[in-house]
């Protein structure tokens, strides 16, 4: 069985042909999405009946802390903040030859609480099957807090996973 990967503005995407068996939203995608309901609607219309959505993304709790000189420090943001803005651009945002903007270019992200993601999906008729949160210690070679102790990092959720399916009508 083959796979097809599509690069598109997710809010403008319309599948030609039968629905997809799997839609994946990867680590770091949802906090760039300012229309969560629009994203969930695209997922729902893209999935075939019986199809699955897998989300593995950054947990918004990650932005509540920063890597201080002596370990984790509280970041002065709200868990329910509508937007976080900053101007430092990591080189990893521009893989494949792109370069970071110069000057005072602001980056805006929206770290949605996982409950908002789940509610957007359920609101489109998808059925939640799995929800898990993971600490920074499970991130492999990358860590949000390189100067923090393992014990500190184990206490902060930095990623989460959601699996949901589109009902197939056979029940």
Automatic annotation (TrEMBL):
Top-level taxon in the UniProt lineage: Bacteria
CDD domains in alphabetical order: AdoMet_MTases (cd02440)
Protein name: Methyltransferase type 11 domain-containing protein
Source species: Cellulomonas oligotrophica
